[in-house]
Amino acid sequence: MPGAATGTVVVTDPLNFWGGKRVKPREEKNAEPVFEPSTGKYSPIKPGSLVIQGVIIYSRSMERARVMLEAARIIRERREKIAKLEVINNGKSITEALVDVDIAWQCIEYYAGLAGTLAGQHVQLPGGAFAYTRREALGVCAGIGAWNYPFQIAAWKSAPALACGNAMVFKPSPMTPVTAVILAEIYKEAGVPDGLFCVVQGGAETGSLLCHHPMVAKVSFTGSVPTGKKVMEMSAKGVKQVTLELGGKSPLLIFKDCELENAVKGALMANFLTQGQVCCNGTRVYVQREIMPQFLEEVVKRTKAIPLGDPLLEDTRMGALISKPQLEKVLGYVSQAKKEGARVLCGGEPYVPSDPKLKGGYFMSPCVLDNCRDDMTCVKEEIFGPVMSVLPFDTEEEAIKRANNTTFGLASGVFTRDISRAHRVAENLEAGTCFINNYNISPVEVPFGGYKNSGFGRENGQVTIEYYSQLKTVVVEMGDVESLF
Ligand SMILES: NC(=O)C1=CN([C@@H]2O[C@H](COP(=O)(O)OP(=O)(O)OC[C@H]3O[C@@H](n4cnc5c(N)ncnc54)[C@H](O)[C@@H]3O)[C@@H](O)[C@H]2O)C=CC1
Ligand SMILES: C[N+](C)(C)CCCC(=O)O
Questions:
Q1: Which PANTHER family match (predicted)?
Q2: Angle at CA 90, nearest 5°, toward 99 and 107?
Q3: How far apart are CA 80 and CA 94, in angstroms?
Q4: Which of 247, 270, 304 delimits the end of a domain?
Q5: In this structure, are 274 and 236 located in the same domain?
Q6: 188 and 89 share a domain?
Q7: In this structure, is residue 278 part of a structural domain?
Q8: How confident is the prediction for the chain on average, in pLDDT?
C-alpha cells in the first residue's frame, strides 16, 4: 500500500477480539477519539467491557510451535500492510515501522522454536526415590501495552505467553488500538484456538479490571513508572506475577578513544528512533571533554539532516509525535532546559511540513542540548521526545558515577576502542542492558528489561520462559513410608 498519509483512514470494524472474532463492546461507554499523529485527524474508538469466561490451556507444545511459525510467516507476508497501519496510528516513519514488524515476527518465530524445548529436570534422591519438575503454564496472562511500539509490544508479550501454553488477554494503549487486533486475526488464521489470544480495548479502567481479575495469573506491563507502580500494587492484591517494562533515562558514555563517526551514529540511534519516544533511549550523552567539539559538530550536522515529515514516505526518517499533549510536554521540557541554562544547538521547535495535509500533525524538529548539568530537569526526567542532552566528563570513574546517579536503570551504552574499558564500564553501569559500540538494536534472542525503577522481569531471550511458566515438583517414593508417627 504505497502512498502518502491521507487522513481519511476510517476504522469501521470492531476493535475488540474475543472468542476468535472481532466483537463490538458489550457496553458502549467512554468512547475515546484516536488521532492520526501526522495529520491531527481523528475517529472515535469504543472500548469494551471485560468478562474472562474460561481458561484454555493449549497443552501440545509442538502444535503451539507450528501455529506460531505459521503466524510469523503470515506477518512476514503482510509486513507492508501492518507497518502502514502502524504508521497511520502511531506517527513513526514507515522505515522504522517495517523494522518493528520484522522484530515482531522474529520474536514469534523464536518462541515457536523454544516451545518444544520446555522441559523439567529429573533429580535422584536417596533410596531409589526421585523427583522431577514439570514446567507448567500459568493460565490467563494479561498484557498491557504502551503506544510507542503497538504491534511489537503485543508480539513481545504474546509470543512467550503462548509458547508456554498460556492464554493472553492484551490491552493496547487507547491511543494505538489498531494493530494488536490484526495480530489476533493472524494468530487465529494460523490456527491458534479461539479465545487463546484476546484483545480488549480501553484505558486505565480496563487495565485495572485486568489487574484485579481473579482469573488473571500474571500481568505484563509496558509503560510509565507511575502506572507501573499502580499495576504492581493492584496485582499484589491477588498475588499475581508481574513483569514491568518501565521508563528510563539511560546514559551513553562516549570516550575519546572511540571511533567518532560510529559514536555519533550511535547517539542518534540512542535518541531519535520513534521521535524519541522509546523507553531505553540513551538521552544522557556523556562525552569525554577532549572530543566534545568534534562530537557536537558532527552530531548537530547529522541531526539537522534527518528527513522529517510524512511518515509514510520511504525517505522520511522522523515522523510525528503521538499526540498534541505529548508534543506540548516535550516542547515544555526544551523551554525549561533553556531557562535552566542549557543551550539549544539545533531543533526543539514545532515543525510544519510543506504538505498542507500534514499541517495539523504533531511534528517537532529533533533537538540537541549542550551546556547541560546533571541537576537539570532535562537530564533527570524522562522526556519521551526527540531531545538529546549532552554532558562533558573527564574520567571513567566520574562518568560511571554520574551515569548511575538516577533512579532508572533500563539501558546504557559505551563507545570506546579499549576492550578492557568497554567490559569494565558494562560491568559497573547499573542497567538491564549495556550496548558496547552500538545502541538500540533489539535481537529477540537476548533478554530486555530494567534495573531499579525501570522495572523487573525480562522480555525476549530464553529467560522469559521463566516469567510465563511455573514449576511443579513431583516427589516419587519407591520404598515404604518412613513415618515419624
Ligand atoms: N517508558 C515507556 O515505555 C513509556 C513511557 N511513557 C511515558 O508515560 C507518559 C504517559 O503515557 P501513557 O500512555 O499515559 O502511559 P501509561 O503508563 O499511563 O500507559 C501505559 C498503558 O497502561 C494503561 N493504563 C493506564 N492507567 C492504568 C491503570 N491505572 N491500570 C492499568 N493500566 C493502566 C494504559 O491504558 C496503557 O495501555 C508518556 O508521556 C511517557 O513519558 C509512555 C509509554 C511508554
Ligand atoms: C525496539 N527498541 C529496542 C528500540 C525499543 C523497545 C522498547 C520499547 O518498547 O520502547
A1: ALDEHYDE DEHYDROGENASE-RELATED
A2: 35
A3: 9
A4: 247
A5: no
A6: yes
A7: yes
A8: 94
Which of 247, 274, 307 lies at the terminal end of a domain, its last residue?
247
Distance CA 140, CA 161 (A): 9
Please report where in the chains the cell 531499579 appears, as a residue: 452
Q: Are residues 270 and 370 in the same domain?
A: yes
* Ligand 2 site residues, Cβ closer than 6 angstroms: 148-149, 153, 222, 273, 278-280, 440, 442
Residue nearest atom 39 of ligand 1, based on CA coordinates: 326
Q: What is residue 350's predicted lDDT score, i.e. its pLDDT?
A: 98
pLDDT value of residue 45: 52
Distances in Å between the Cα of 111 and the Cα atoms of 20, 136, 167, 260, 270 are 22, 16, 15, 37, 27
Number of separate domains in the chain: 2
Q: Is the CB of 112 under 6 A from ligand 1?
A: no
Is 245 tagged catalytic? yes
For residue 129, the CA-to-ligand 2 centroid distance in Å is 48
Q: Is the pLDDT of residue 29 over 80?
A: no
* CATH code for the domain of 140: 3.40.605.10
Residues 310, 222, single domain; the answer is no
Q: Which atom of ligand 2 is nearest to the CA of 100?
A: 1
The answer as to whether 416 is a domain residue is yes
Task: Decide if 303 contacts 347 (C-beta within 8 A).
Answer: yes
- Selecting among 36, 86, 96, 245, the annotated active-site residue is 245
pLDDT digits (tens, 9 = 90+) for 309-326: 999 999 999 999 999 999
Q: Could you read off the pLDDT of 259-302 as tens digits, one per residue?
A: 999 999 999 999 999 999 999 999 999 999 999 999 999 999 99
Residues 370 and 311 in one domain: yes
Q: Does any domain span residue 3?
A: no
| Percentage, residues of the chain above pLDDT 90 | 89
Relative to the CA of 442, which ligand 2 atom is closest?
A: 3
Q: Is 333 in the pocket of ligand 1 (CB under 6 A)?
A: no
Residue 280 CA to ligand 2 centre (angstroms): 6
Distances (CA, A) of 251 to 105, 149, 410: 30, 22, 10
- Is 344 within a domain? yes
Do 143 and 86 form a contact (C-beta atoms < 8 A)?
Answer: no
* Distance of alpha carbon 76 from alpha carbon 112, whole angstroms: 15
Q: What CATH number is given to the structural domain containing 293?
A: 3.40.309.10
Residue 417: give the domain boundaries: 251-436
Shared-domain flag, residues 243 and 268 = no
Q: Tell me which ligand sits closest to the C-alpha of residue 202.
A: 1
Same domain, 283 and 240: no
Asked if residues 457 and 448 have their Cβ atoms less than 8 Å apart, the reply is: no
- Domain check: are 228 and 327 in the same one? no
